[in-house]
Design brief:
membrane, transmembrane helix, 94% helix, 2 domains, transmembrane, mainly alpha
Length: 85
């Protein structure tokens, strides 16, 4: 085999390994994003639970927030459905 052919084979193998490594890095980044999002949601649920257990005034606030979020969700979905048509 000529030195050029060996170099070409090594170059192809190097590119294949670089693509494989890039794929693994992308996968690790998405796993990291998922882990941070899970931590954020867990913290939110803990705060929500503590607020719900902490008394009557907070329960009123909690109900108001829940109703507000539901209304905001329906308004947002309405505008998004109108934007698609």
């Amino acid at each position: 085999q000529s030195p050029g052919a060996v170099e070409e084979i090594l170059d192809r193998e190097n590119k294949r390994m670089a693509d494989s490594l890039a794929s693994k890095v992308t996968r690790l980044k998405s796993d990291s994003d998922f882990t941070s999002m899970t931590g954020l949601l867990t913290g939110s649920v803990k705060r929500f639970s503590a607020m719900a257990r902490s008394g009557r005034d907070n329960r009123k606030l909690l109900c108001g927030m829940a109703v507000g979020l539901i209304v905001a969700f329906f308004i947002l979905s309405y505008f998004l459905s109108r934007a698609r048509t």
